[in-house]
Automatic annotation (TrEMBL):
Keywords: ATP-binding, Glycoprotein, Kinase, Membrane, Nucleotide-binding, Serine/threonine-protein kinase, Signal, Transferase, Transmembrane, Transmembrane helix. This is Protein kinase domain-containing protein. ATP binds at residue 59. It comes from Camellia sinensis (Tea plant). It is found in: Membrane. Belongs to the protein kinase superfamily. GO terms for molecular function: ATP binding; protein serine/threonine kinase activity. The keyword ATP-binding applies.
Amino acid sequence: MEDDNVEAFLKINGSRVPQRYSYSRIKKVTNSFQDKLGKGGYGDVYKGKLLDGRLVAVKLLNETKGSNGEEFINEVASISRTSHVNIVSLVGYCFEGRKRALIYEYMPNGSLEKFIHNNKSQETNDYLEWKTMHKIAVGVARGLEYLHRGCTTRIFHFDIKPHNILLDKDFCPKISDFGLAKLCPKKESIVSMLHARGTIGYIAPEVFSRHFGRVSHKADVYSYGMLVLEMVRGRENNGQSIEDTSDLYFPHSIYKKLECDEDIGLHGIESEEDEKVARKMILVGLCCIQANPSKRPATNKLIEMLEGNLESLQVPPEPLLSLPSRTPIATSIIQISGETESCEVESM
């Protein structure tokens, strides 16, 4: 029945979806899956090359029965409706029973995650400059603005995190992995959900509990704020790895430093401009992770805040929630082979 649903979807949306590939063709494109780029929640990703010479990334979806019909449809349906510099392009797909794959444009710099969480990067000076981090933050905000307001059908991503932000050769960010996305008619801004969806630590509180408000595009804004603060936390100059620091330490300590106008103490700040960029990113991140969705800025406002003057930004109320948990108990629930797994949990 699941296969019939997918085939029906592909037939109805035939003019919108990208090129269909046979599994045998996928094997040729990837040279029998020899060059593995990484592993995600829904499958492994391999480097490939099309007949026209274009390099691609092929995500071979897990074959667990009944696990990826909805995710497959979400991915194809969502990306097929998009065309934006900050959204990854879906080149093609494969659907042969349990053999399913998605073919994306290749991003030579991989995911943002490796530049944030690689503890060796600072030792080798192989880290992103603050102006590049600012460019990435603005690009992701532009991508979200497009998904929320620029498409014919609004798209709520529900899984914004460093692992799902891909970087091209010029470090232009591309939002990827739409497996948990929900489509929403243009005139509507609220979605109904039977289950919470997203990655632990990046999920907005209202997705877990209606006590915090109704679920809307502001859930993506919350996740975006967590992503931006995670980018900044990766530059914390305290001699410890991210995994060793307290979950509560950074957001609350950095808030107090901003409130008291103290030195923020982050690695790689070499000029006044770097300092301004870092402070803007922190302020934007703190604004986005407010527990009340109505208190979070809209995506177009995020871009204004990041590109405007630091002096025009005010310190928001102190956030009640911490950054993504890295405690052994939390990560043991959601890790697969060292990768953070997206999950669905019951709403309260």
